[in-house]
Amino acid sequence: MCRVASLLALVVLMSRAADALDNGLALKPTMGWLHWERFMCNIDCDKDPNNCISERLYMQMADVMAKEGWKEAGYEYVCIDDCWPSHQRDAQGRLQADPRRFPGGIKKLADYVHSKGLKLGIYADVGKNTCAGYPGSLGYYETDAQTFADWDVDLLKFDGCYMDWTLLGEGYVNMSKALNKTGRSILYSCEWPLYEWPFQKPNYTAIREACNHWRNFADVYDSWSSIKSILDWTASHQDVIVPSAGPGGWNDPDMLVIGNFGLSHAQQESQMALWAIMAAPLLVSNDPRDICPRSKELLQNRHIIAISQDPLGKQGYRTAKVDNFELWERPLSESRLAIAVLNMLEIGGPRGFFIGAVPGWKICDPLCNVTQILPQYKEMGVQTPQTKMVVSVNPSGTALLTVTPLQKPYWENTAERRKHTIL
Ligand SMILES: *[C@@H]1O[C@H](CO)[C@@H](O)[C@H](O)[C@H]1NC(C)=O
Ligand SMILES: *[C@@H]1O[C@H](CO)[C@@H](O)[C@H](O)[C@H]1NC(C)=O
Ligand SMILES: *[C@@H]1O[C@H](CO)[C@@H](O)[C@H](O)[C@H]1NC(C)=O
Ligand SMILES: *[C@@H]1O[C@H](CO)[C@@H](O)[C@H](O)[C@H]1NC(C)=O
Fold first, then answer.
1. Which residues sit with their C-beta closer than 6 Å to ligand 4?
2. pLDDT tens figures, 333-359
3. What's the CA-to-centroid distance between 207 and ligand 3, angstroms?
4. Do the strands 398-405 and 337-343 form a parallel or antiparallel pair, or are they unpaired?
5. What residue owns the CA closest to ligand 4's atom 2?
6. Is 387 helix (H, G, I), strand (E, B) or coil?
7. Of 302, 326, 309, 321, whose CA–CA distance to 374 is shortest?
8. β pairing state of 31-34 and 77-79
């Protein structure tokens, strides 16, 4: 296991991600809020005015994001998912927002979101219909791209329902070109590989050239089994997908569901830590108007976000499975390393893991400086290859650490060196 893992590490570290879509966007994993997992296709504004898909929902989200630390933490995009449009295009063949739920229209909503210093995302589909049955963009790519540009939209999530799979690539590439042709920089979030995997192995070089991020696997649910299935899929395809991630284009394991109903706090920490390790877009789907303070603090944790947004832009990967622990590692800028130790045993109490057993611990030679970020922030100080350090990991929780190699010992003479080795 460890030997295979370090071979992969070598390949990943040495390969440079191929050319990304050249629109100047997503140089770091996208951060924002996306309505789907929490609000789905709730269009009943008579019965549920506070939670239905309407301009009011996004305006309130923009308010909260600007006021309560989300924007400062880096969450920038307020994103609409399915169920926003009218069932009919207008007389010119353009998409239009449902007039009852979006009386001001999308342009006015974009202006509002921009006035809060945030950006607006919208949703459409490469095929005949969206997944929820609203008009799809097939045959209308240029019209729809221009409509979104005219509305000053900043991001497009482009779904893959109701599409002949043999035309998927063409459709996604055509929309990418149509967005470029508008002259407006619009971040392009694809689901191309997700819809192609059932038929053939997707061409990630082509996907990276066309998209800023791309969904590979099933929709996230508000449950630990869903998070586990995403991690498992990612680890078992990491040799294919990890090399394609880098500034400008990212693998998208779907939304963060932290702050909802289905995950324990330890499991929320695991999702946050592993999404940072995976260099995943951090698109939260929850209700920040009403969120538990601990979940909010976790989502706004600047140490974890710094790992997510690390300028080296390398995606991490699973390097070992040992004794019901999973080890995930992500190379960071300045030769640093992030390590996540995930306790997969869902019974008992916290278990200790000996950190010297992490394959990447070799960067600690001759010395390193270790900071624990989860489950609580702790400076562990200078360590050696012979460390005795053990981290405690809650069931289905994660210990997250960063390791900074100290290449040049900061002492010169042997007396001080001896003093240090005794430490
Ligand atoms: C369109 O593509 C060209 C060539 O890749 C690029 O230089 C330009 O910045 C792109 N424009 C937009 C708006 O994405
Ligand atoms: C993509 O664009 C090409 C060139 O205009 C066109 O021939 C093709 O039919 C388009 N494919 C789809 C799925 O729209
Ligand atoms: C994958 O896409 C790239 C870029 O579009 C292309 O050059 C390459 O030939 C494709 N590979 C395969 C196996 O089709
Ligand atoms: C180790 O890291 C901590 C936290 O970043 C820092 O305060 C400390 O100065 C570092 N120690 C060394 C020896 O680099």
1. 369, 371, 379, 382
2. 999 999 999 999 999 999 999 999 999
3. 9
4. antiparallel
5. 369
6. coil
7. 302
8. parallel
Distance from chain centroid for Cα 388: 33
Atom of ligand 3 nearest to the CA of 203: 1
Share of the chain above pLDDT 90, in %: 92
Are the C-beta atoms of residues 164 and 198 closer than 8 Å to each other?
A: no
Shortest-distance ligand to the CA of residue 208: 3
Packed helices 141-150 and 168-182: angle between N→C axes, nearest 10 degrees? 40
pLDDT score for 408: 59
Mean pLDDT of 86-90: 98
Question: For 224, phi and psi rounded to 5 degrees?
Answer: -65, -35
Any idea which ligand is nearest the CA of 179?
1
Rounded to whole angstroms, the Cα distance separating 208 from 88 reads: 33
Task: Tell me which residue of 11, 79, 26, 24 sits closest to 250, measured CA to CA.
Answer: 26
> Residue 159 catalytic?
yes
Please indicate whether residue 139, judged by its CB atom, sits closer than 6 Å to ligand 2.
Answer: no
Domains in the chain, CATH or no CATH each: 17-308 (3.20.20.70)
Q: What angle do CA 134, 136, 137 make, to 5 degrees?
A: 150
> What residue type is 152 in one-letter code?
D
Residue ranges around ligand 3 (CB below 6 Å): 203, 205-206, 209
The answer to whether the CB of 139 falls within 8 A of the CB of 167 is no
Q: Whose CA is nearest to atom 3 of ligand 2?
A: 174
Annotate 121-158 with b (16+ C-beta within 10 A) or e (fewer).
bbbbbbbebbbbebbbbbebbbbbbbbbbebbbbbbbb
The burial class, CB within 10 Å (0-12 / 13-18 / 19+), for 47 is exposed
Known catalytic membership, residue 46: no
Q: What single-letter amino acid sits at 15?
A: S
pLDDT for 17 equals: 72
Q: Which atom of ligand 1 is nearest to the CA of 25?
A: 14
Tell me if the pTM is above 0.85.
Answer: yes
> How high is the pLDDT of residue 422?
47
